[in-house]
Amino acid sequence: MEILRIHDRNLSGRHVPHVLAAKSLELNRFSLGWSLKCNEFWRNLRTLCREELFSSKAISSQACIRETKVKEMLEFIGKREGKVVRIRDVVSAVVLNMLGNIMVSRDLVNLEDESVHTGEINRILRNISDLASIPNISDIYPLLAPLDLQRLRKKGMELHQRSSEMWKTIIKDRKENREIGIAPNHQDFLDAIIKKGCPEDQVNLLFLELFIAGTDTSSWVIEWTMAELIRNPRCLKIVEDELATEIKHNSITESHVANLTYLQVCIKGCTLLCHFSSLIGQLSHAKL
Ligand code: HEM
């Protein structure tokens, strides 16, 4: 209780790596995930994301997008029977398209492309994730940070710039399409942001952060769960039986998920394993 009541701010703080654009104070005030202060921008973003993306109403209204994307993924994998498929690549492309359709009502990656590495956003996210995994001397000795000895911050800022250019084009297209009446009928996350009148820098950073937060996490959890199941044939058999009992036809809907209780436990277990490191990171950052 003491942790939650007295040390909540310290424990909810995050170390902001130098490679991220949000490290600069100019951009940090716009950040959702890395904001150093709970300022007005941060509060507005939290409210916007809660209402438009994470509320139960928003989640259930997105069900049909997720179901369509899962169907496309199954068809894609089905066509490659007998061939090697890199599950992480496929899942991360599918998750990108799910988020793309939820946020800006369009696919961002072409799943049918053999390489699955197409799409500027995919390249940017991969490069950021690669950069962030390199130990950075600026994080270990912040005094040396202005020198950016490994040029990681420079590369990180270039990627942020590329991502901003991409979002700028998408936002411009949407505004123009709305004017000539060919935009999607429904209001999506992008419309909600445009309506709120958020500054351009904030929108660019928000999109980048949401895609970073949502893509690798989801594909890692699925890849880890599959790997753990392969290592545990007894558990794999239970999952296979559960799937065979619950899913009679080829089409999977979200209503099936509630009945896949054993699979859910496996995924939760792997999520805990995957993200235990994040908790350790947070505790070490806390100024207790
Ligand atoms: C299996 C998938 C996912 C896992 C395991 C996961 C895990 C996490 C964890 C552990 C944190 C907290 C990090 C910390 O406190 O330091 C976090 C934060 C966050 N996640 Fe996820 N996440 C997943 C999917 C998503 C998706 C799909 C989105 C949305 C697009 C998302 C958006 C966020 C955001 C915005 C935050 C920061 C929240 C804040 O600062 O208050 N995540 N996630």
From TrEMBL:
Coiled coil regions in record: none
One Pfam entry name: p450
Membrane-spanning parts: none
Protein family according to the UniProt entry: Belongs to the cytochrome P450 family.
UniProt name for this protein: Corytuberine synthase isoform X2
Species assigned in the record: Ziziphus jujuba (Chinese jujube)
